[in-house]
Amino acid sequence: MTPILILSAIIFFITSSVGCLILTLSAKKMEEKLLRPGIIIHFLFGVLVMIFFILNDTIEKFNLIFFCSGILLSGIIIRKNYHLLLKIYFGLFLTLILFFIYSPSLLAYFITGNYNKVKSPQTINLKENYYLAEQQSMLGLSNDFTTYKIYKKNGVYKKTILRDIDFGGQVDSINLIKFTDDTLIIKGFFNKRDTTLFKKPGIFKKGDVRVLKNK
User: In whole angstroms, what is the distance from residue 65 CA to residue 46 CA?
Assistant: First the structure.
């Protein structure tokens, strides 16, 4: 996905969510017959999305219109006198708001039909429950701009303790030289080069990570 498409998907989703709120608040004043064209258009695009899914193809605009129209109509459909199954169907679109809060970029991939193109971040265990993980850009920038973060995992919870670690690219492997409360030295290897990063004192506090050596 291109950065423009990701931004467009997020903007359309936010606009649809705002429209959903406005329609929900004006539900009492709006007649049900005025909503019928929107509902019909939504289901027509739903049929198109299913057809292209069966054909193993994706028309991003169709997917975007389908999901955005669903979120747009969801609030007012729930408040109007429609069949329970229709209310449940459109109510499911409201869960996309929670998806957006969790990860706007993943939502953009999902509502454009590009969920199969989502790349899992590179993660390397440093020691015990400390991990070095790739910081994924919302706009999907090139690997030339790959940066990393260190987080501590406690069960399902992750606490980030250091961000914006830059090896100069995406590493193939790393060698943890020292990791204490006040010193961090990591050697990262990629493209037949190696970069040694050094940070002290207080690695868990705000500060720059300095490059010792770059071959």
Answer: 9
